[in-house]
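Team,

Forwarding the record for the chain on the shared tracking sheet. I've put the sequence and predicted structure together so nobody has to dig through attachments.
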Amino acid sequence: MSDKALAVTDATFAAEVLKSDLPVIVDMWAPWCGPCKMVSPIIEQLAAENAGKVKVVKVNVDENTEMAGRYGISAIPTVLVFKGGQELQRLRMVGVQTKAAYQKAMDDAASS
């Protein structure tokens, strides 16, 4: 498994996220988004630190409007957590969070 966040598209979302055997952290972002640029290095670092425990992916909402619409993304960055093909709504995070908050979501997803 890669130790970096994987770029996922509308076309690959189902295979990479919904059908994943591991819990999946989905970073919804856009290149023009300042707060997204703050979150990106944290997400990449956590992807490396949690490789094999959770899968971490990134979805560019400008290029993948279907997934952004399906999950009601109205503000970015938004981090979604999936397990068994379902979003764990209680773990959704909007806006910039601390590394510890993202790690807790990963831990909660892996242990639930």
